Amino acid sequence: MSLLEGVGHLSWWGFSPSSDLSTYCSHKKEGPLKVLCVGTNDLRHILRLMCSGREVEVYLMETNLELYCRHLLLLSVLLQPSHLMGLQEKTEMYLDLYGNSHVRSASFKFVKNNIPNFIRMVTDEDYLRDILPMVDLSLLKFKERDFMEGIFKFWAASETNEETFPMERLWDSRVRSYLGERYDAGRNVYDMDFSMKLKERASLLDFNESATWRQTGVSFEVRDGVYDTPNRTLCSGIVKMIGGAKRLARGYWGDIVCSPYLAHGIHSTLKEMYEVRNRLNVRTASEVSEFNVMSLIHQINTGRTYDKPPKPDRFTLAAPKEQPATLEEVIEEEEEEEDDDEKIEDGVKDLKIEETKSNRKSKVPVLELNKPHSKLKVKLLPLGTMEQLPKKQNMVNTFDLIYLSNSQVSYFTPELTAILKEDAQVVVENVKYVTPISKELEAGYLPKIKELATKAKCEFTGPSDAMRNEFQLTFHRVE
Fold this sequence. Notes:
The chain is α/β, with parallel strands linked by helices. The chain has helices at about 5, 45-50, 65-80, 85-100, 105-115, 115-125, 125-130, 140-155, 165-180, 185-200, 205-215, 260-265, 285-300, 325-360, 440-455, 465-470; strands at about 35-40, 55-60, 100-105, 135, 230, 235-240, 245-250, 275, 280, 375-380, 400-405, 420-430, 460, 470-475. Residues about 315-325, about 325-340 and about 345-360 have low confidence and may be disordered.
């Protein structure tokens, strides 16, 4: 069982919890914060930055264009207007598309119906600037945008045509390849991985849901429903030797070991999320993910902190009786309903006008998105441009912080110093939650990163017991 067979050639999610990266730059009080993120694989840190209240400009570089497409899709889900999609539905659809091998038909229909709008985002800069101004694709190459258009068109394939992406068979093939002779004893292997590593480091993880995900690829079953439609957004291609020749093999080449729970489901600021009864967590990682994502979506769309309590835990047989609403709560609820009514009326008017102008013939559904309560801008960088950035004059002495995922630490080079400001921070993702990594590689990870940092004229600032106490390693520029 190799590390690559477990984590995959392309990760669709990160291997650490979401983090507000702006906290590493608390010393910078004035002006916008410029952050370079390399290989984050998802939006988890972006969502935290959107809720930070700070003016942030993020330059984002991923390893595959499929990830950029997913970023646009998931941003479109969480920014849906309330009269089109409620908070609960946005949360469920976000998690469904984010981390499930098979999704509900409603999620698939949302993707398919909006494919023309996603294609227009990458081909029409004016449209993108109008519908999603926080994202800037102007730095991407034209051939990359063309490739992204092809990805979106593949997503739009028929729901019933599973042969083009037979996810169940592809997932099982990956699991069989990874486990080998131990395939029939798969649950015992999952139990060993869970007991030896994950349980100690991620106490909120539940073995049963973790084992179910490793066997089927379905991680978030937030509501009772049928999860039977292949999640085509998890499809990618790699070059393999087939029949003695190099060919592009399309399939599922992502993580089958670590799980999408790591991003939002293993850490919480609420003490009740860590409650244990009869040696079992009262909350599962799926439930924690739901609450955390719902809180982020609420704050991004309203600008207010989500202050409602979590749902009753799984050991609660019946929810407590509701207390009579106070006069203040009744007035607030009525005001919210009036605001929603006004939004619906305005939305319907805008929708009719837009349909009359441009969609009468094509009947393409109009994509409405909220303008987030955020001062964040995201610029997507062309693939493989990290080595070119120090050579560009407009990038010299630019960034207050650089974030490197654990798969992109090779970019921690002396050349990196040129694009860092004085007193800049470099944050490196740890390997704390990478289950298949050997003890030797794990023990040698921090010394290796320190060695790279020294050559790049950066000083290690913590934490001291990095493997067990923290999921990010921080470095400070000393020159």
